[in-house]
Amino acid sequence: MNAVCADDEQWYPATVEKVNEDGTVQVKWDDPDGGPESSAVKTDEMKRIVIYKDYKVDEAVEALFPEDENMYPGVVTKINDDGTFEVKWDDPDGGPEKSNVKPEDMKYPPIPLDKLEVGQKYSGTIVNTAPFGAFVDFGAEREGLVHISCLSEGFVDNVDDLVQAGQEVEVWVKQVGEDGKIGLTMVESKMGGGGGRPARAPVDLSGFTDSVWGDRLTGKVVSITNFGCFVEVSPPSGDAGPQQGLVHISEMSDGFVEDPWSITEVGAEVSVVVKDVDVGGGKMSLTMKSTD
Question: Is the pLDDT of residue 198 over 50?
């Protein structure tokens, strides 16, 4: 595992010795280098290191080059009897063409964001938690967020009651935003709507054209994206079936919104006002802001 050393607030390899009565963990540093041999560390200042040991021949990896101890791309060419792997470097650049590397000095290349697809399942590790969810390293170019509403089938009041940093979890890709943010879920059944606007019946917004600004409608959140949420509402006249409108992230609250998932969740009932209706384009803009 890695832990934060209080002397310089940097991360270093260490081994857990015991759990202290005050809730901290006593760790023994792998290389104290003149500092304390062991220290008491808070649990949120620790990260478990998962060492994968089942690499296969012909798999692409990133590995530690012994001559300069930097990570470089290569391909596994042999599994050695001592548990190391022979790696052929993509670009030896004058150095050895192959090297034997320990599994703790190897990892799979990060998954490019453009290779991620909604519905894909991965194993990952909780990196840290926040009041609104948990960040997971699942091998992609950047971490993904499991919103608190997607941690469990039921209601979750406190993220830390369910998951902790270092915990291994299974996740499904729920959404990959244009800004590179990745939405994940630990509940497969909550995949619906994670990839953007869901499929729906032919759009008929004619029932909303006479909506008076300020008149509120009650709707249901059907999907959430990085740029806002889609809400299903019925026209005031009741002459037509319900349709969906977009509440842009800037219209979800009177204050600044950084994370749409922190404001609402799929299935929630919300109060909205119709801002604009484009019958020909089949688009309707809504707001959840106060209109007083």
Answer: no
Per-residue pLDDT tens over the stretch 71-122: 899 999 999 999 999 999 988 777 789 999 999 899 888 888 888 888 888 8
Q: Which residue has the tokens 């971490």?
A: 143
Conformational region of residue 104, where left means phi above 0, alpha means psi within -120 to 50, and beta covers everything else: alpha
Instruction: Give the model confidence (pLDDT) of 172-193 as tens digits.
Output: 999 888 778 899 999 988 775 4
β-bridge pairing 269-278 and 243-248 = unpaired
Contact 198, 159 (CB under 8 A): no
Q: Is 156 left (phi over 0), alpha (psi -120 to 50) or beta?
A: beta
Sheet order of strands, 98-101 included: 98-101, 85-89, 70-79, 60-65, 106-107
Between CA 135 and CA 182 the distance in angstroms is 10
| Spatial contact of 147 and 183, defined as CB atoms under 8 Å apart | yes
Both tokens of 253, joined, read: 């609250």
Domains of the chain and CATH, by start: 2-47 (2.30.30), 60-107 (2.30.30.140), 113-191 (2.40.50.140), 206-287 (2.40.50.140)
What is the rounded CA–CA span in Å between residue 62 and residue 65?
A: 9
Whole-prediction pTM: 0.47
- Which distant-in-sequence residues (6+ apart) come within 8 Å of 150 by Cβ? 133, 174, 183, 184, 185, 186, 187, 190
Interior CA angle at 242 toward 241 and 243, to 5°? 120
- Of 151, 111, 106, 143, the C-alpha closest to 124 is 143
How far is 274 from 11, CA to CA, in rounded Å?
51
